[in-house]
Amino acid sequence: MDTVTKAGPAEVYERAFVPALFAQWGPVLAELAAVAPGKRVLDVGCGTGAATVAAASRAAPGGRVIGLDPNPEMLAVARRKPGIEWVEGRAEALPFPDATQDAVISQFAMMFFENRLAALKEMARVLSPGGRMAVAVCGALTASPGYHALVGLLDRLFGRDIGDAFRSPFVLGNAAALAALADEAELKAATVAERVGTVRFGSIADLVATERACAWTLGGLLDDDQFACLRDAAERELAPFMTENGIAFDMPALILTARV
């Protein structure tokens, strides 16, 4: 068993997903939320703190940055990062008074919220007058060619139910639907824009091993033999995306911005 698979989900997120996917987006969200020195910033669904750290860098000196997540294992990893307040809590019921944050960010978490409308309303509630929010979700699966190919492979090998488990992070990848959700939440000056990022893993085997350990997609759904089958088939299916430095392909994000 590889070292990625041996790690728990929070460690996999920090060691594999952050460098491969998420590290590139924190600075983008912090800029769009107008994070600046001295600002009070809340990261909702912070995970292990990739975007939170980016916000803290922009809020220094004098800023106060909070990372909130419902998962204690993710927060245990996040707490290794100093200078940030880490809070266990849910996006749908933020444990903060009204108008206490200058900026709110959320990076690739809203897809997994139990009540997305309530979460957006809560983010707006805690923003102070003139504050801004920036919320990123995965864009359309069809626009992420490597993951789209992998989903097709999962459908063929193991059936639609397994493929659908992998589709779950892309459920909000429709700009019109996301804008409609913002309207329902009565967000002011809300816009939805697409930004294209890049997924990078050292090898196809690394990508498959990381997804194997991911509690939000394939974790626990396939046995050892099935993952061996997937790894072998993925070497062929994803070969077009190989570069001299590993596998790389586009993955767009939809970013909702709003103010109060």
Entry summary:
With 260 residues, the chain is of the alpha/beta class.
Q: What descriptive keywords fit this protein?
A:
Rossmann fold, 260 residues, alpha/beta, 8-stranded mixed sheet, 25% strand
Describe the model:
It is a single chain. The chain is 42% helix and 25% strand. It has 260 residues and is an alpha/beta fold. The chain has a single domain, classed as Vaccinia Virus protein VP39 (Rossmann fold, 3-Layer(aba) Sandwich). Strands 1, 2, 3, 4, 5, 6, 7 and 8 form an eight-stranded mixed beta sheet that branches. Strand 2, helix 5 and strand 3 form a beta-alpha-beta unit. Helix 7 (145-158) crosses helix 11 (224-237). The protein is globular, with a radius of gyration of 18 Å. The N and C termini lie far apart (50 Å). The mean pLDDT is 95.
Tally of domains: 1
Low-confidence parts? none
CATH T-level topology: Rossmann fold
Mean pLDDT: 95
Helix content: 40-55%
**End-to-end C-alpha gap:** 50 Å
| SS element count, helices | 11
What is the 3D form?
A: globular
Q: Would you state the CATH class?
A: Alpha Beta
Assign the CATH superfamily: Vaccinia Virus protein VP39
Largest sheet: 8 strands, mixed
- β-strand amount: 15-25%
Number of strands: 8
Indicate the CATH architecture.
3-Layer(aba) Sandwich
Class per helix and strand makeup: alpha/beta
Rg on CA atoms, Å: 18 Å
Order of helices and strands: HHHEHEHEEHEHHHEHHEE
